Amino acid sequence: MKQNCSRWEDDVKWQLLRAAEGVRPWRSLEETRQCVLCERTFQGRQVRVTWDRCGIPRLRCPTRGCRGTPAQWIHPGNPLISEEAWCDWVRLLDTLCEEPARLPPAAPKKRTRRRAAAVRRS
User: Which of 3, 61, 74, 114 supports an S-S bond with 66, CB 3.0-4.6 Å?
Assistant: First the structure.
């Protein structure tokens, strides 16, 4: 009985993964993804399926407490999330900017009544 249940769960996961992923399609349940929220790498077979109150299945990251969904799962080794790639982007943006970034100007200070009266007298 346990094996039949497991096979049914795998079939449901496979159908949901194929339906949910348009940008990064899954080829099998053995394929891996990395959650950008918790940084865990996992296989499609490890994905949790939860059901909401209306009976709609939802895919969740297998890490306990992580709220990651397929939108937050990328292929492992994606260069866009590495620290080195981030530093490269910062250097590129710095070279493209004509001026260094500045803080917005400070708001003018409010005058107190005493100071405003002194200014009017002079």
Answer: 61
Both tokens of 102, joined, read 């500045």
**What number of other Cβ atoms are within 10 A of residue 13's Cβ?**
20
Nearest to 57 by CA among 19, 4, 5: 19
Whole-number CA gyration radius for the chain: 27
Q: State how far the Cα of 80 lies from the Cα of 109, in Å rounded to an integer.
A: 44
Are 48 and 61 in contact by the 8 Å Cβ rule? The answer is yes
Q: Where do we find the tokens 């982007």?
A: 89
Tokens for 56, please give them: 């709609």
Give SS3 for 58. Answer: strand
Q: How far apart are CA 29 and CA 46, in angstroms?
A: 8
